[in-house]
Amino acid sequence: MTIATSGLHHVTAIAGDPQRNADFYLRTLGLRMVKTTVNFDDPGTYHLYYGDEAGRPGSLITFFPWKGAPAGRRGTGQATTTAFSVPEQSLGWWKQHLDGLGVDTTEITERDGERALGLRDPDGLAISLVAHPQGDPRAPWDNGIVPAEHGIRGLHSVTLAVTAEDATVAMLGDLGLRPHDQQGNRLRFAAGEGGPGAFVDVLVTPAAPRGLVAAGTVHHVAWRAPDEPTQAAWRAELADQGVGVTSVLDRQYFRSIYFREPGGTLLEIATDEPGFTADEPLLELGRALKLPPWLEPNREQIQATLPELDLPDENNPELAQRLAENR
């Protein structure tokens, strides 16, 4: 293809109880809720977005939380691990922080110069905190809970589990990713200039069972397109290659197209624009339920079906700054 992504845009996963999900990602991991909205295709459930202060592409993990949703199964045909980037000297702090909150963690491991700490969220989603030896220049969200010097910088990478790599590797090449490293049955690819936020690992496990997407698993992985014309050109090239790709869908904060890579994982190409300040100011992101114009006439009915969601005061940047100063 003639177009190449610069890196990850977001990862979207399935969760159970929305309040439990929010408490973990806001208070335990120290991310910011940058948008409280609904699943546009199923407005009876939330779509919760977490990221850095402004919800910049590459910092985002999002959830469809269905209270009482059955547990999924990690396996081939899906993204099995979502990794976040943290400073190199911070993994000890994170280990102590998470253990103190009763979160099960792995021992800190090292692979290809990177140190990593594994954990699971309350629904069992596999997460890794990774310290890249060259660091990560992205700014953290300083929320007064997780000190800025240890804060998550954004997404680091995702791991796709496949039974055979050839077709998946070919499609990653079509998306502009290039081979970066290989260790045994794990192949790493890099987008753009590489580094945290631009990696995808392909884990080849021929005998592993097929994954089941439900609570505690990833629904899809989104890659960045700078604007709508680029996305449209990308869609045309995919269609010309015979890939089953959706029409362009308006997600209010970006435009999206979806398709599956040959190994089975659902992928998305999402535009960087217009961003999360399209319908509320930066200081108020995530604090109120936002609906797209076509769902606004049904606001009363939609709100009646959604459970109450209590956000911590630290989601307000002004208060977060005061709390950080008084630590």
UniProtKB/TrEMBL annotation:
The record's SUPFAM superfamilies line, in alphabetical order, gives: Glyoxalase/Bleomycin resistance protein/Dihydroxybiphenyl dioxygenase
Q: Which Gene3D superfamilies match?
A: 2,3-Dihydroxybiphenyl 1,2-Dioxygenase, domain 1 (3.10.180.10)
| Name this protein carries in UniProt | Ring-cleaving dioxygenase
Top-level taxonomic group: Bacteria
Alphabetical UniProt keywords? Dioxygenase, Oxidoreductase
Q: Which GO terms describe its molecular function?
A: dioxygenase activity
**Boundaries of each VOC domain copy?**
7-132, 154-272
- A Pfam family matched in the record: Glyoxalase
**PANTHER family named in the record:** RING-CLEAVING DIOXYGENASE MHQE-RELATED (PTHR36110:SF2)
